[in-house]
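Table 4 source record.
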Amino acid sequence: MRFRHPDGSTVHLAYCTNVHPAETLDGVLAQLRDHCEPVRRRLGRDRLGIGLWLAKDAAHALVTDPSALRGLRTELDRRGLEVVTLNGFPYDGFGAEEVKYRVYKPDWADPERLEHTTALARVLAGLLPDDVTEGSISTLPLAWRTAYDDHRAETARGALRTLAERLDALAELTGRDIRVGLEPEPGCIVETTADALAPLAAIGHDRIGICVDTCHLATSFEDPLPALDALTEARVPVVKSQLSAALHAENPHLPEVREALAAFDEPRFLHQTRTATAAGLRGTDDLGQALDGEALPDASPWRAHFHVPLHAAPAAPLTSTLDVLKGALARLLGGPHPLTRHLEVETYTWQALPAELRPRARSQLTEGIAAELMLARDLLTDLGLKELP
């Protein structure tokens, strides 16, 4: 979906396909048929943006076989779909029964991460619509915090500098400007937007910036306005923003609140949980750890890294951080010029929701994704953007 900002520039809205993961190119093609095109039809649009997640095997197949890349581009066009952004965070196995910590491997100190992201950039350059010259890729925020020493830190910075050089060469070769954004996430070396400032300054390249995920922003109790203002002051480009909402518990000391939270403690994904105290941010790696005894203070609200559907906040006594998303979006798009032009709804946790909230049929998932996109569309038009055909 495309929108015209009041300054005349085009803003792209997509949804991320990691909600129905596939490891192979054939699986990606099936996604377009079974999920993406039905969402487009449900919205009544001639064109729908999707943020592709390409696992390592699918990316390798596309970057090594020009005919496969042309075939994917043809299939996108045929189904009324377009791609300006990729989710390059998960490397593989995102559809596994247990993802948890494996999503952070390989990290930016491992050569596989550089090679994979380079492949994604080359693929994206070939997938961009004919009238679009800018593409974006979100990526791991350096590494998970453990087993990350000074040597690995310097190796990671060196890899990102090499990536920047490769992106420069790609732009010269293709005329396509592909940028990569570190995506701050709780528990990682770059957990907050503030944590990103020093590493990005050390890299010092305008094609390496930040991806602002509004669920992660909220989970870390970051106020979106000063956080985004700090990025602007530091001249850190917001390569893209993922529109998502976290799980919020106002009174975690109450038994009924803990019981409601326990329904979201599931075995597939990591749900880092945080609370803001007078002594600073406190947290656990997973929701179950927070619920187990006194691992996390419960005198103030908790937030968990669980991407809840944008249009459907959990039932009381829980809620979502949709207000944080709205605040971030107002700062990103509400000014005289947009801070980013690539937006991606990223609710990958539909099948991890409590059983009674999960879509039971493909059509229900289609309805849910379409409802999220309609909410995002309304938020953008409320900010003065005009939806384009």
